[in-house]
User: Which sequence fits this backbone?
């Protein structure tokens, strides 16, 4: 347990930041899962629309420092690769 006032404040501010970041991280994961499910079901038009939301949420999370920019780029690349493969098949 924290003893100093500054350590106690860091715990409080970290908890606030963690709560705020959770929203953006969860939103990105949800859109990615929905896009992958739509690709698997063969609904490519809806998958493209959902992928735009996924890319947007990943960019927003990267911009806010919630996920590393390269992590966001890698996830977007894999998602686009899966969408392109589904279009060809």
Assistant:
């Amino acid at each position: 347990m924290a003893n100093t006032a500054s350590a106690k404040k860091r715990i409080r501010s970290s908890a606030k930041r963690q709560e705020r970041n959770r929203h953006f991280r969860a939103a990105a994961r949800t859109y990615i899962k929905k896009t992958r499910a739509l690709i698997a079901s063969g609904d490519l038009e809806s998958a493209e629309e959902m992928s735009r939301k996924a890319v947007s949420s990943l960019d927003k999370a990267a911009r806010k420092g919630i996920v590393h920019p390269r992590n966001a780029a890698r996830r977007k690349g894999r998602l686009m690769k899966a969408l392109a493969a589904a279009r060809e098949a």
